[in-house]
Amino acid sequence: MPVIIFTEHSEEKIKKSSLEAISYGVALAGKLNTDAIAFVVGPTAATLSELGDFGIKKVVHANDSSIVTSDTKSMAAIIAQAVEAYQADIVVFSNTLTAKGVAPRLSVRMKAGLVTGAVALPDLTDGFSVRKTVFSGKAFADIQILSAKKIISLNQNAFEIIKSTGKAEVIPFTAANIPNSIKIKKINRVAGEISLAEADKVVSAGRGLKGPENWGMVEELAKLLGAATACSRPVADSNWRPHHEHVGQTGLSIAPDLYIAIGISGAIQHLAGVNRSKTIVVINKDPEAPFFKSADYGIVGDAFEVVPKIIEAVKQLKK
Amino acid sequence: MKILVCISRTPDTTAKIAFTDNNTKFATDGVQWIINPYDEWYALVRAIELKEKDASIGIHLITIGGAETEPIIRKALALGGDEAIRVNSTEEDPYFIANQIAVVAKEGAYDLILTGKETIDHNGSSIGAMVAELLDTPFISLATKLDIEPTQAVVTREIEGGEEEAEINFPLVLSCQKGMAEARIPNMRGIMAARTKPLAVKEPLASEKLTSTKAFVLPPAKSGVKLIPAETPELLVQLLREEAKVI
User: Fold this and answer.
1) What percent of chain A has pLDDT over 70?
2) For labelling, which of A39, A100, A237, B69 has a CA lying 20 to 30 Å from the CA of A26?
3) Residues A145, B215: C-beta atoms closer than 8 Å
4) Is 90 exceeded by the pLDDT of residue A319?
5) How far is the C-alpha of B175 from the C-alpha of B154, rounded, in Å?
């Protein structure tokens, strides 16, 4: 009874978050003595047999360009067909924007208990329980899945990608009678930026920077580190930065390895979006800024003096 | 046009998070309760904005909860809902909850069902899509814009690195997030009117449960911040490389 991993791609390559889900699914299948199958929908330039590098032996590919991948109803129907064809008991997703629309639908279809925002492999010592984030990252809950079939949606940046060797067999899959319930009018993409949700490193700034004209140093530091840029809510609300950069309770919730906060005081609502970051650096001229309590490293100082020096030091490091 | 807005009661965003009963229950002592912000600011307020443009729109609210949830239902009615339904259950399994909403939604023949993008306590982000599947309707998650035309909705949603606009026929289910509407506070007239608006209490229908919460765990406390003098920020860079090993 294999584990199926719903594997997303950007048309060019498999998403990093899906490689994390694959590593999770392979490890879980190992624990359960079963196989892990990657399931891919839609045409992609990625070489799917290379998923063998991540421990996958079988890739099932519904290579049909007519499938509207934004349609949650279609996607749940397609995945349900693959689940049935391969008699899978467990489906693993990465907890992406797509998964948030599709995994709960599939849960109803399969009558499979769903845990979204999982952060660790299931504990099998007493039933099947999965740890997930709750209270906006301020706590975890162990959720027992009571049904025989199960769906786990893994938080991004919560599980290490595990490399393996081998080549995966790619099997075409034809889905039948897929409903189409929405019509896409247009898509606007911001090209060339590192996706904030998937970024390992994030450089973020707040009102302490005084105005949008001062973001040059934030962007320069981010570029040097290979980091994505983010901002606090007041900055997005003042239109200093685009709304999709807003991290916090009402914005995006992220969990990078490194989060550098410049001129952000660290209100509880901001922390809710970033407290899962592994290493937090806070640069603020106010020694009383609450953010220092949640930080690993801090500098009490003027960002306009400190950040250029950090940029210089990173450049030195790269030499 | 009939809109059903799903609302949930959550602890205030600044509430202290602690647990009792051997870490199996959330400690509610001293906790202020609010309407889940995403349900209020985005789902409910957008419904009210639409009704302000077209008075024939009816807005009904639904919550699944015990009698203790009634104050937040009254608050939602004060903001602008017409009437409310409370399904009398404290069950927390998403599948169970979605089934209760789906039954009410089917009976009421709603054109549009709105939820917030997630609750700030469970962070499940799953009820809306489950309801849509139970009703066999389209579902859009993380919608940032919603406009209504006679037979269809025009919805913008967030996608990775951008946004996507789609047209969808009614009925449909949407989960709403930032961008959808401007937050507002109830006025005195609304608060007075809310006291007499209908609030029906229904007993839940029998439904299977697929999950249950075993225990809660608090993350380990941070060991404390390591402060680096402002004169030597290069030391930070060195620590990030050698100690934290993140650059």
Assistant:
1) 99
2) A100
3) no
4) no
5) 14
Type and span of the H or E element at B160: none
Residue matched to tokens 């608090």: B218
How far apart are alpha carbons B4 and B115 in whole angstroms?
9
Residue A260 Cα distances to A54, A204, B162, angstroms = 30, 6, 24
Cross-chain CB nearest to B133 (options A108, A195, A301): A108
Do A145 and A210 lie in one domain? The reply is: no
For residues A155-166, one letter each, b for 16 or more C-beta atoms within 10 angstroms of the residue's C-beta and e for the rest, the string is bbbbbeeeeeee
**Residues of chain B contacting residue A185, judged by C-beta atoms under 8 Å apart:** 154, 165-167
In a domain, A134, yes or no: yes
Cα gap A13→A15, rounded to integer Å: 6
Identify the CATH number of the domain in which residue A270 sits.
3.40.50.1220
Same domain for A49 and A145, yes or no, is yes
Residue B22 CB coordination number (10 Å): 8
The pLDDT, as a whole number, for residue B148 is 96
| Cα Rg of chain A (Å, integer) | 21
What residue numbers bound the domain in which A221 lies?
201-318
Domain count, chain A: 2
Q: Which of A35, A40, A34 is nearest to A14 (CA)?
A: A40
Q: Are A15 and A94 in contact (CB under 8 A)?
A: yes
Q: Which of A10, A100, A225 sits opposite B247 (nearest CB)?
A: A225
Number of A:B CB contacts under 8 A? 276
Determine the Cα angle at B57 with ends B56 and B60, to 5°: 135
Nearest to B161 among A146, A189, A300 (CB): A189
The residues with which A62 forms a beta bridge, in sequence order, are: A41
Locate the chain B residue with the closest alpha carbon to A179: B138
Does residue A184 lie in a domain region?
A: no
Contact B239/A at CB under 8 A: yes
Q: Break chain B into its structural domains and give their ranges.
A: 2-214
B122 and chain A in contact, CB less than 8 A: yes
> Would the CB atoms of A97 and B142 count as touching at under 8 Å?
yes
- Report phi then psi at A123, rounded to 5: -95, 120
pLDDT at A191 over 80: no
Q: Which of B160, B168, B175 to mutate: most A Cβ within 10 Å? A: B160
Does one domain contain both A118 and A242?
no
Find the mean pLDDT for residues A117-140: 96
* B23 in A contact zone (CB under 8 Å): no
Nearest C-alpha neighbor of A113 from the set B149, B98, B24:
B98
- Inform me whether the pLDDT recorded for A194 exceeds 80: no
